[in-house]
Amino acid sequence: MSDRAKKRTAQFIKSAGSYAEAITIPIPFAGQYKNVFGRKLDISSNTGLSLLLGKAVSGLRCAAMLSSQQLKSELGLLANFSRLHVPLTLLVPEGGHMYLPQLIQAGCIVFNAYSSQEQGDLLTAAQVISEKCLCPVVILADQAVEEEEAEPLASKDLLQWFGNPDDRVASPTNAQEMVLGFERRRIPVWLHMDQASLVGAQKEPSIMALEKAAQFCYDQQHYHAIIAATLRDFEELSGRSLSSYQQIGHEKAKYLIISTGLESQLVEDTSFAKILKKKKTKLIGLRQLFPIPQFTAVQERSLEQIAVLESIAD
Fold first, then answer.
1. I need a surface site. Which of 1, 48, 172, 291 has the fewest CB within 10 A?
2. CA separation for the pair 65, 46 (Å, rounded)
3. Residue 143, φ and ψ in degrees, nearest 5
């Protein structure tokens, strides 16, 4: 077990352990923790997502950290989180980009972290996005530059940000209102004796396809608005920028490069920005990989060519 793996696991526990009631990690880790709500944190290692699925369906806040090898074997189960409308925050510290198409197919919202601070901030924001959209949110941290330890929000801010999981909140979409009512528990309890609902039913392939299409129409079309509003609220609370993408270069560019990876050092490099402006080029680095964020740069009349750069497996 490398020191780097231990450090990244400890960072994840510190971030996710502030709000979660159950987490799973890829390596053994000793210690007892309580989240900001005073609830005991259940930590399991090398158990995959099956144990968390049962806890999440029962209304517990859950988060996971998986290696790329574990992610490969858990993609089918991750799709069940999405199908059952169960919130989950998942961090993949290395090698996750090669499974981006599968994550999108599984119905996940996907973010890219460029630094340790962004990783911590995205874990905090992603949980709220996951609870509003009722689907898994995955954070890929292949390109995260390890800096000094991330600065978390103060406990009082965390309490305000997450809210008690037992609280009843307004359903953010019409589809959720139809199923759960105008108000619902912040973390729905799908297996509830007094509020019974049908989950996980076996269906024919043709019906499953219709279910997938309906999910896009009734759920995913609301993702953009929910994500944008949540990221704005986080920026206001924390004072740290957390937009869906970063951009540098010429304002009225002829050439646009959209990249799934853009290190913070490159954004801050003034000489690189000057080169882009001289070449009449704009570079956009996506922090939100799915759904692809909405930006106006592709609508500029001056634009002549667009190129897309994405990470590929070695």
1. 1
2. 10
3. -100, 10
Length of the chain equals: 314
Query: Tens-digit pLDDT profile for the chain (314 aa)?
Result: 577 778 888 889 999 999 999 999 988 877 788 999 999 999 998 788 999 999 999 999 999 999 999 999 999 999 999 989 999 999 999 888 889 999 999 999 999 998 888 899 999 999 999 999 999 999 998 766 666 677 889 999 999 999 999 999 999 999 899 888 899 999 999 877 676 666 667 778 887 778 777 777 777 889 999 999 999 999 999 999 898 888 888 888 888 888 876 666 666 667 777 888 888 888 888 899 999 887 776 667 778 888 888 766 55
Q: How many helices (H) and strands (E) does the chain have?
A: 11, 13
CA dihedral of residues 12, 13, 19, 20 (deg, nearest 10): 100
- Return the amino acid letter for 279: K
Nearest to 66 by CA among 86, 88, 85: 88
Per the listing, tokens 């059952």 go with 84
56 and 87 Cβ atoms separated by less than 8 Å = yes
Q: Name every residue whose Cβ is closer than 8 Å to that of residue 135 and which is 6 or more positions away in sequence.
A: 81, 82, 85, 86, 87, 107, 108, 109, 219
End-to-end CA, the chain: 23
Amino acid residing at 66: L
User: Residue 253 is encoded by which pair of tokens?
Assistant: 């560019």
Q: Which residue has 């999910």 as its token pair?
A: 215
Residue 169, beta-bridge partner list: 184
Report the distance separating Cα 165 and Cα 183, nearest Å. Answer: 13
Joined tokens for residue 103: 């994550």
